[in-house]
Design brief:
This protein has about 200 residues and is mostly beta strands. The chain has helices spanning about 15-35, 85-95; strands at about 10, 50-55, 60-65, 65-70, 105-110, 115-120, 130-135, 140-145, 150-155, 160-165, 175-180, 190-200. It has one domain: Sandwich (Jelly Rolls), CATH 2.60.120. The structure holds succinic acid and fe (ii) ion.
Length: about 200
Amino acid sequence: MNVLPRGVRHMPGWFTTDAQRALVEDIRAVVAAAPLYRPVMPRTEKPFSVRMTNCGALGWVSDKAGYRYQPLHPVTGEPWPPIPPALMELWRTVANYEAEPEACLVNFYEDKAKMGLHQDRDEADLKAPVVSVSLGDECLFRVGENTRGGRTTSIRLMSGDVVVLGGEGRLAFHGVDRIYPSTSALLKKGGRINLTLRRVTKP
Ligand code: SIN
Ligand code: FE2
C-alpha cells in the first residue's frame, strides 16, 4: 500500500464516465478558443514534451524569461476562456478555500510525454490547494516531500481521478514519469489530459 505524503489526497474515480465525457467536450471548446502550444523551459529554451493551454483569468506560461501567470495566451494574444462550470464546482467541493480558482492549466500528454519532478510555487497564496483532474490514458504519477531528493511514492492515475495537493502537501514535489498508451477509450486519438486548478493571487 502506497502511503501518500501528508496533505496529498488521491480520489480515484471522482468523475463518472459521463462526467468525463462532458469535461472532454468542455476542454475541446477551451482548446478551440485557446489552442494548445508547446512551451519552452526558461533560459535553455528546451521544449516541453507536453503541450499546454489554460482557462481562467490567468494562465500559467513558461518561456525563455521564466515561469509566470498572465491574462493572455502567448501565441494568440487573446484572453484565456473561462474555467468550465464543472471544474468550478469541483473546486468548491474539494478545495476547502474561501475564494475561487483563477487559473486552470490544461496539459496534454502524448504517448511519450512526461513531466519532471517540480513544485507548484508560482502562486502568491500557498494556502489554496492545487486541484488536479486526470482524463484519458493512465499515467505513473510520482509525489514526494517538500524538498528535492526526498522519498517519493508512485501511484497510477486513471481517467476521472482527482488529486489535491494542499496543506502540508501543497509544495510536495510531483511529476509524471510515464503515460500508459491505449489504457483509456475516452480520447479518440489517445493521450492524457491533466487539468490543474489554482488560486494565484491572495483574495
Ligand atoms: C502538473 O504538475 O502540472 C501536471 C501533473 C499531472 O499531469 O498529473
Ligand atoms: Fe505541477
